[in-house]
Amino acid sequence: MTVQTNISPKSLSFAVTGMSCAGCAAKLEKNLNAAEFVATATVNFALENATVHPLPGATPQQVIDLAADLGYEATLKLPADTASVSLAITGMSCAGCAAKLEKKLASAPGVYEASVNFALETAELKKAASTSTQELVKLIEESGFEATVKNSGQQSAAEQQHQKDLAEEAALKRTAQLLVFSVVFSLPLVAPMFLKPFGIHWELPAIWQLALATPVQIFVGQRFYRGALSALRHWGTNMDTLVALGTSAAFGFSLYVMFAAPPGTPQHLYFEASSVILTLILFGKYLEFKARRSTTAAVRALVALRPDEAHRVDGDQVTTVRVSELRLTDLLLIKPGERVPADGMLAKGEGDVDESMLTGESIPQLKVVGDALAAGTINTSSSLYMEVTALGEETRLARIIKLVETAQASKAPVQRLVDKVSAVFVPVILLIAVATLLAWLALGYSLDQTISAAVAVLVIACPCALGLATPTALVAGTGTAARAGILIKDIEALERAHKVNTVVFDKTGTLTQGKPELVSIQSFDKDSNQLLQMVASVQQNSEHPLAYATVKAAKEKNIALVQPDALKAIPGKGVSATLQGEAISIGNQALMQDLGVDSLMAQGLVKSFESEGQTAVTVALGNTAIGVLGYADQPRAEAKKAVALLKKRGIKTAMITGDAELTARKIAEIVGIDEVFSQVQPERKSQIVKQLRQSGHVVAMVGDGINDAPALAEADLGIAMGSGSDVAMETAGITLMRSDPLMVPASLQVSAATLGKIKQNLFWAFIYNIIGIPLAAIGLLTPMFAGAAMAMSSVSVVSNAALLRRWKPKT
Questions:
Q1: C-alpha–C-alpha distance, residues 790 and 771, integer Å
Q2: Which one-letter DSSP state was computed for residue 715?
Q3: Domain annotation covers residue 505
Q4: Is 506 a catalytic residue?
Q5: What is the pLDDT of residues 520-575, one digit of tens each?
Q6: Contact 149/85 with Cβ under 8 angstroms?
Q7: pLDDT mean over 363-368
């Protein structure tokens, strides 16, 4: 991603991390003020902030790079009026095109950040709200490419994706037809080479070679000529430049020899080389395009989940309407086998719903009245009636698609190096080709040998492999993860996941079901039903899980409840109220101590219940304990296996809970957790995570509630259970779309697999060029072999990335 601004701001503000003392701040401030692109700068250690007044033409990236050189991480704080825009780009032939376009967009007035992704053919921009998107589209078109605004509102995402799919299929079909044409005309040219091993020495007359090679050079070569001329018009070069120059040199030299050589002298023609190079490169482009489509299949599948029509119920009438016409609170009918058209709540009926494409869970889930339904899921049983609660981009499916697309468009830190290499790659190759030509001539080699070596250098070089290495692996990995129900926010989350050595679980709803049940009632001077009536009456309007379990138990016994007075919740301790004129308190031992309740019997029962893994609550009338209730929240069936898998990877596990120590340790013992933090108030969760990080652990925090959000943000990696709150999901780096602890080790597995593919691809892309170019320069590669190698380099990188589609959680 390139960051720049030409808005001439009075100052730019950066968040700075990595400063350990005031001396660090002074050092950074001194270096910033000494920089040639800065007028003045101040650095605040306490606020971890840098305010920079740049000189005209300066870019925020220069500040970020300078801070990085000093060992700090600076991030531009975007102004409040920042708007985001996504553009679909066509016409880029290599990573060099993407790098140059990114630089040009970043330097446009009103643009704060620009990121152009060659593999996805997209541009993600952050700009001032006042900056015209159409002006930026025009700038892209002036640079020789075409751009359209994604999700502009005029069409649904599904319609846009459908049009894009049709255009891609048409382009793929045209390429296939052109490839067949090229193969038919090129085969006779290379036939003599294949016949020689069989002792057959046959060669086409020169005029026939010209007749066969010319159509290939014109019709197949025109796409490369167009790209090269477009780049030249904007004073640039790209991969098309190399192909056009290389094949034109071979074809032109053959023409010269054919008409300039004296009659009867041997003619070394390269018509077959130019034709075969074009054919092989076109074949490579065809395979590359198909492989790239396979890496983006996950997002296309998600977009395809959105139905175009819905059945709206109005009284006795059921009308079929477009999904775009729906409104909130509309009542919809979903027939068996149909997809849910929007997010909603089941209003009538019950049945199984297949949520596999959203959560990765293959077993359909039973839905009853009041349950949430998500757009894109499939009704597999009886007719259901739902009330619409969210539409369009507000649906869960739309948020998932946006999250996956954002992750796929992000760039790894190493990509900055790749982009810099790609930006100068083609000019450097042109210089090497010229140097090769001059060196061979100076050494006295013949013109045909010299031309052959120079052409081989031009066609062996492949900037595409470099540009595709990281994004294709990232797209394939995040797409595969999404299909399994794991949403990865960005490349940073992937990298942090790979380094995690400690996983901290929130207990309730994560390791346990999150649905405690009342399992023990011990009354001291009343019968158990009377005690249950008192407690349930006080808690009947509470949303606390223990209160819900108490009220549920009372209703199951048909116990009538009484309305309490003077109800007061005491955070972290319990609740007090007046019930039928008597003061009643319900809570933990801390509350009982505060109230001066002293009962050895109650304390003994509390310890007994807690030793069995129950959460114990004492009930007091005035200052006298009258009973103890025990609640059990059963561990999830998969929790023990998930913890064992993490330990197998050498990862330490810990659990944070507000439960008493005995209860917490019992659950930890059942599940296999290494370390327990009990009786933790919600606000202390983030402090514990911070302490673990400060002691050298790379921490992943797993939680699902609003009160987990600070801890998720504090951790090196936040992992949110998808059944939890939107706040937790927004804060986390990874979101699990179903509440299955086994998804935690699975998310670390897919992160490691994706990073592994990125590293493999970068290695092969760099090593290919590092080895191939010198071999071509010294004449060890023929132009045809060089063309084949160049074509297959991109294909191998993309195909290697596509192997990630086979990944499945190892559970």
A1: 12
A2: S
A3: yes
A4: yes
A5: 999 987 788 999 999 999 998 887 788 889 999 999 999 999 888 888 888 778 89
A6: yes
A7: 84
Q: Given its phi and psi angles, is residue 726 left (phi above 0), alpha (psi -120 to 50 degrees) or beta?
A: alpha
Q: How many domains does the chain have?
A: 6
Reading the block at residue 581, the tokens are 């004129």
The strand pairing partners of 517, in sequence order, are: 632
Q: What is the CATH number of the domain that holds 495?
A: 3.40.50.1000
- Report how far residue 341's alpha carbon sits from residue 373's, in angstroms, rounded to the nearest whole number: 10
CB of 790 within 8 A of CB of 462? yes
Residue 17 phi/psi, 5-degree rounding, is -120, 155
Question: What is the SS3 assignment for 280?
Answer: helix
| Collapsed DSSP state (helix, strand, coil) of residue 237 | coil
Active-site residue, from 354, 419, 506, 708: 506
pLDDT per position as a tens digit, 792-809: 887 888 888 888 888 887
Q: Taking a C-beta distance cutoff of 8 angstroms, is the pair 804, 476 a contact?
A: yes
Q: Which of 367, 396, 425 is the last residue of a domain?
A: 396
Question: Are 203 and 275 members of one domain?
Answer: yes
Q: Which domain holds residue 123?
A: 82-150
**Phi, psi at 189, each rounded to 5°:** -70, -35
Is residue 645 domain-shared with residue 627, that is, in the same domain? no
Q: Could you tell me which residue, 363 or 495, shows the higher pLDDT?
A: 495
Q: 53 vs 77, 114, 176, CA distance in Å?
A: 14, 21, 54
Domain assignment present for 168: yes
Please give the C-alpha separations between residue 332 and each of 309, 311, 312, in angstroms, as whole numbers.
11, 6, 5
On the CB side of 195, CA atoms within 13 Å amount to 11
Q: Are residues 207 and 142 in the same domain?
A: no
pLDDT at 399: 78
Residue 230 lies in a domain: yes
State the pairing for strand pair 717-721/699-703: parallel
- CATH number reported for the structural domain that contains residue 373 in this entry: 2.70.150.10
The confidence score (pLDDT) of residue 600 equals 82
Structure tokens that stand for 504 in this block: 């901290």
Q: The domain spanning residue 130 has which CATH number?
A: 3.30.70.100
Two tokens at 710? 């600070």
Residue 291 shares a structural domain with residue 411 = yes
Whether residue 714 is found in the same domain as residue 665? yes
* Separation in Å, CA 492 to CA 496, 497, 733: 6, 8, 8
| Residue given tokens 């697309």 in the structure block | 405
229/245 Cα distance (integer angstroms): 11
Could you give the angle at the alpha carbon of 122 between the alpha carbons of 340 and 60, nearest 5°?
Answer: 120
Q: Where are the alpha helices (DSSP H) in 70-116?
A: 95-106
Residues 505 and 436 in one domain: no
Q: Which of 586, 608, 632 is the last residue of a domain?
A: 632
What is the spatial distance between Cα 127 and Cα 736, in angstroms, rounded to a whole number? 31
DSSP state of 339: B
* SS3 state of residue 443: coil
Rounded Cα gap, residues 811 and 809, in angstroms: 6
Task: Work out the end-to-end distance of the chain between its first and last CA atoms, rounded to an integer number of angstroms.
Answer: 36
Same domain assignment for residues 558 and 653: no
| CA distance linking residue 641 with residue 502, whole number of Å | 16
Secondary structure class of 295 (helix, strand, coil):
helix
Residues 472 and 583 placed together within one structural domain of the fold: no
In a domain, 622, yes or no: yes
